[in-house]
């Protein structure tokens, strides 16, 4: 499988995706505008609460090509953050009160400056989260010691594992991914990750492998813990249940499989004002691989930068004016506000 | 043939039955909602039971709804198919156990 960009798909274009999301359906049906739903609930304009997380996307390069990837990442993507831009992030952080830095990609570990960056962040005393796709640890000898490296810097590891069976995991993330993910989890467990009392946090992320919504995070977590312990002696801390947002490769899947209308209907019908009040863009700012600032990683992939009232590049980072900005929203935001809500940290409300 | 008895779009209109008898509909939907909440059984177990029953009563709407419902509650394909086999075993068994009645009758009327 190739990225949409390598396939020269129309959906590789962010503007085209936004068009698809707002166009009427074949029978003239239109989903209500997301902004209108926020307005009805007194949430427009959507404003930050307290910005406490800087999420940094180190690039689109990845060793996997998952079907649901909202980044359209893959081995054919070469966009990665330079060390100079990383330095700008460090400078901005040094000046700010933000304590948590969430590193994502692609596979962030494939960025050649990844280790240096983590070391610098930990010198600054910030809590570092790495969104590790697990298979990268086994992809090449040079990554085999990543578990020890993470441990050394007290990194919190957050890893996708769509399901506790091979068939469903491989269907979403590629042939053989489940087996490698299990091995990587065992390697992380072996250095102490997920083990009680170690202080080394290993969280898993569940995404539905198809056109349906996730169920209650709590019951899924219990089931994952039971099945992974029984089958593979794997332990972990928390499970985050995340809804797939209708953009990029997941949007492509929805359209080509004939599930687009049904899925959007599900999201729109499940709109939950309490989840809308807790969306992650209210406490997070996202930095793109070239240093631009976005409300979240999804807006980043849709080329929707932060409102012009705020600085739009990390070199001009200014927490005060970012805190005053209005968050840019669009139809894809229904994905964050369905049911119990969805964010990079899982559910946003207790159902 | 243009029309058929079952239209998948009708599933979403289930709530419309309230149009002709609101009181009974609301009592039914309240009850229905309560039944499927987590209780002594988990929501996943209830979705699997519903899936099995849907096959036993052969309701295409319920099959659609509880296939997705079971997936959403985290069930896997093997669990879903096993649930259907349970329904099939009970349905098949229910037909077969009446064979005893047939045998009794045969013995009663035969020389
Ligand atoms: S979902 Fe993650 S692991 Fe999969 S292709 Fe995208 S960035 Fe890579
Ligand atoms: S998609 Fe981004 S901007 Fe929209 S609600 Fe979710 S986090 Fe906020």
TrEMBL record, chain A:
Requisite cofactors: [4Fe-4S] cluster
SUPFAM superfamilies (alphabetical): Radical SAM enzymes
Gene Ontology MF: a single term: iron-sulfur cluster binding
Entry superkingdom: Bacteria
InterPro entries membership: Aldolase_TIM, ArsS-like_C, rSAM, rSAM_ArsS-like, rSAM_sf
Domain Arsenosugar biosynthesis radical SAM protein ArsS-like C-terminal: 213-346
PANTHER family named among the record's database cross-references: FE-S OXIDOREDUCTASE (PTHR43728:SF1), SLR0304 PROTEIN (PTHR43728)
Name the UniProt record assigns to this protein: Fe-S oxidoreductase
Record organism: Rufibacter radiotolerans
From TrEMBL, chain B:
InterPro entries for this protein: AhpD-like, AhpD_core, AlkhydPrxdase/COmuclacdeCOase, CMD-like
Pfam families: CMD (PF02627)
Matching SUPFAM superfamilies: AhpD-like
Protein name (database record): 4-carboxymuconolactone decarboxylase
Single GO molecular function: peroxiredoxin activity
Residues of the Carboxymuconolactone decarboxylase-like domain: 22-102
